[in-house]
Structure formats: structure tokens, C-alpha cells
Amino acid sequence: MFINGQWCDANDGARFNVTNPANGEIVGEVPNGGKADVVAAIDAAAEAFKTWSKTTAYQRSSLLYRAYNLMIEKKEHLAVTMTTEQGKPLKAARNEVQYGADFLLWYAEEAKRIYGETIPAPRGDQRFIVQQHPVGVVGAVTPWNYPISMLTRKIAPALAAGCTIVLKPAEATPLCAVEMFKIFEEAGLPAGVVNLVTTENPAPIGEEFVSNPKIAKLTFTGSTNVGKMLAQGAAANLKRVSMELGGHAPFIVFDDADPEHAAKGLSLVKFLNTGQACISPNRIFVHKSIAEPFIDTLQARVQRMRGGNGMDDGISIGPLVGPGAVDKVERQVKDAVEKGARVICGGHRLMENGLDKGHFYAPTVLADVREDMLIYREETFGPVAPVITFEDEDEVLEKANDTNYGLAAYVYTPNIGRAFRMYESLKFGIIGINDINPTAAAAPFGGMKESGLGREGGREGISEYLETKLGGFSI
Ligand code: NAD
Predict the structure, then answer these.
(1) Is residue 48 lining ligand 1, measured as CB closer than 6 Å?
(2) What 3 state SS string does the chain have?
(3) What pTM was estimated for this model as a whole?
């Protein structure tokens, strides 16, 4: 753990193992932190806030630039750590490191654009100014599926705003966090500005984040259930929160779209990170008239995908995070098949050539998926593409919006009017129109409804860490 500028063990000396999900091998060991450790980290962050919050935007910016450059220098090492610990193919890990670094670069720049304003005051002898001040100490909780970019997406804007931070990474991927904190140390961030508490027992850390009076804000990325619970705790103490939660993205292909192009797009985005992404398409709505060529193209592409250890060449399907994740996928597929879905390809665990030592499920395409199936309602977080047919625009819009989630949605159509109608009517925070990758450090990322509160990235991302302060001056 990294507390107050020092690498340290847990207060009680406890540690836990980190395993490779591709083969079950132990790849590292980290401190198993608890309440005493997180309290020490919060104290350090609160002390550091006194001086860090007074630094100039230029000072903070130059440290973020330095961290960005170090990340780029160490890209390969970070990517290998990620593949070994989290499982995604090495090429995807490299892409994530770049995406993660982009947040440091973007917020190195945004630090210098924290503008205020002057407002005409009602009295002649009065002047109003408004400034943006850092909220204070931030508690951050991150998931395992994007174990580097989810860190920088919080840490970069928090530091740029003048906040200090205590981060608790997911128990499955603490090694990526350790490597990132070595970078922050080397970049020269002052002691206490960034603190890392690793643990395999997150609940006491979460409780401390929502109850400790020194924490001003909680930022969380993870499941909707845990997010709601933490948000309730934070509400009791009126702490600010940002929540990036689950998703259940619709992917809509209209009859005027090219079914082969759309199927190609789907195969690229659906199976990224083995489907373990909050913006992964989970309900694929295809117009009845083009369902056949769409499914044929999808099947041909998916059958060419190879599952295995992400360090090996030619692998596009890495392991799932753990046995529970494989069970969930299996349960959803079984339920769908029992209720009449057709397995076009996949539909089973991958057990051959040593894959039984890891947590693998074959990339799967299901056709004839209907509303009464579990997969229609539940976030899958696995490599399954369920195809549902539809016949008209109003019907598909209603179905797409009929979910408690509201993170990402995708639409394929060359009709500009329809594209605009869908962009404006879909109740999701991120809409890709003929585009499978509507994300970047410069763009606001976040969801509506039970997918979350607040935005990360873009201009919006830094405002999550700022407090608006009015000054009224009598002159
Ligand atoms: P999770 O909620 O189980 O875990 C996420 C984090 O919360 C981990 O660090 C975990 O240790 C921590 N946690 C769990 N219980 C806690 C508690 N009681 N107190 C404090 N912290 C606690 O989710 P997961 O399964 O690891 O991640 C997958 C979920 O994250 C999916 O639902 C996915 O959609 C979502 N996600 C959302 C985004 C987004 O930006 N919206 C990005 C990535 C993942």
C-alpha cells in the first residue's frame, strides 16, 4: 500500500494472493488493508490537502504531464501486468494503458481551465465573483475490468482540481494499481496527495469512505447494487458522490443499415474484454428483414475468435474474472435455451488445452431471444450476443428504453433523421451512431437512471471535484 508517500504493509501484517484468471497461477501478493490503514490514508490525504489545494494549476499540470510521460514509457510493462492479472489480450491491454494515460494528459490541460466568472451585482457598491475550489479529500473505489483506466479517470481530474485522494482498487486487480502508484511516486507527487489501500475485504473501507468526516466526496465505479448501498451511506452524511454503475446497452440495427457492416461492428465491441464492459451491447435488436445476413456474418466472425491466455498470439477471448462470472453466463444461456433461444455458436465453457484451469466461456451468439429470458433483463458481463428481432422504429425504441439501466446505446442506420430521433429519444448517457467506440478522455462518460450519477472524462469530469464558491464584496 502507498500511504503518505511511503510503501507499507497492512497494520496487522495481513496479505492476500492475486491470481491469473487464465490459469489460476498466483502472480503476486499484496497487503490486506483494513480500517486502521484506510484511516491513516485519509489522515495523510487531509494533511496533504492543506498544501496541495494551494498549488497553482501550472504546478499540478506539470506533475500530471510527468505521470503521463512515465505511463507511456512503461506502457509495455503496465500492459503485461494487466494481462497477467486481469486476463485481457495483450493488444487490448496496451490500448487500455493508452486510454488510461490520455486522462492524465487531458486533465493536465484542463487543470489550467478551471475558470470562474463575475456576475453583475444588484447593488452599485457590490461586486460578485465566482470561483471553483477543490471539494477536499476524495475516496475512490474502482473495478477490475479496466484496472488502469478506471484509476486515472478518477485520479487525474481529482488532482487537477486540487483534491487529494485515497484509492481502493478491486481485490482481483491490485497489482495494476501498485504499478500506477509507483508512477505517481516517480512523477514526484508530494506525500499524501495520492494514497493506495489494497484489501480483499472492501466493506470496511467503503464504510469509512462514507462516514469519515475528512472525506468530502466518494467516487465509485462498479455494480449498481454496491453503488446504491454506498450512495445511501454517503447520503446520510451528505457527502458528494459520483457513481459509474452497470449497463444493459441496446444495439439497434435498422433495415436500411448494411447488416454485414453492423455485424462486424457488433463482433468487435461485444467481445472486447470478453464482454466484461459496462458499455458492452447486451441486447442486439436487428430488423427482421436483415436478421439472416446479420446473424450469418456474426457467426462467421465469432467462430474465428480464439479463447486463451491473453499473452499468447492470436487470442481475442480472454478469461472471465472468476468462477462466479462463468456460472452467471452459463445460467443466462441455459435459461434462454430452455425458453426457446437458438444457439448459433458457442454456448459452452472452454475446457480444452488447459483452459479448464482458468475461467473461460466460448464466444456465443443466441438467436430468437425474447423478453421473458433472464438475459433480456440482466447485465451479462460475458461473451454472449443475444439477438432479438423487431419490425418498427417506435417498437424498438420502447424496448430499448425498457430497462433500469441507461449507460450506452448503439444505433446503425444511414438515415440522418432517424439517427437524430434515436440520439434524442434513447434514455442513455452515451449513444454511438454507426460508431462502436464513442469514448475518449475528452468526452463525458456516464449513465442515466440506475447506471449512475455524474460524468467522468471531458470538461464535465473535473467539475465533479469542484465546489462553486460565491464571493460578495461591498466596496
Ligand atoms: P463490484 O461492485 O462488485 O465491485 C466494484 C468495486 O467495489 C470493487 O473495488 C469492490 O472491491 C468494491 N466493493 C464491493 N463491495 C463493496 C463495499 N461493500 N464497500 C466498498 N466497496 C465495495 O463490481 P464488479 O463486479 O467488480 O464490477 C463490474 C461492475 O462494474 C459491472 O456492473 C459494470 O457494469 C460496472 N462498471 C461500470 C463502469 C462505468 O463506468 N459505468 C465501468 C466499469 C465497470
Answers:
(1) no
(2) CEECCEECCCCCCCEEEEECCCCCCEEEEEECCCHHHHHHHHHHHHHHHHHHCCCCHHHHHHHHHHHHHHHHHCHHHHHHHHHHHHCCCHHHHHHHHHHHHHHHHHHHHHHHHCCCEEECCCCCCEEEEEEEEECCEEEEECCCCCCCHHHHHHHHHHHHHCCEEEEECCCCCHHHHHHHHHHHHHHCCCCCCEEECCCCCHHHHHHHHHHCCCEEEEEEECCHHHHHHHHHHHHHCCCEEEEECCCCEEEEECCCCCHHHHHHHHHHHHCHHHHCCCCCEEEEEEEHHHHHHHHHHHHHHHHCCCECCCCCCCCCECCCCCHHHHHHHHHHHHHHHHCCCEEEECCCECCCCCHHHCCCECCEEEECCCCCCHHHHCCCCCCEEEEEEECCHHHHHHHHHCCCEECEEEEECCCHHHHHHHHHHCCCCEEEECCCCCCCCCCCECCEECCEECCECHHHHHHCCEEEEEEEEEC
(3) 0.97
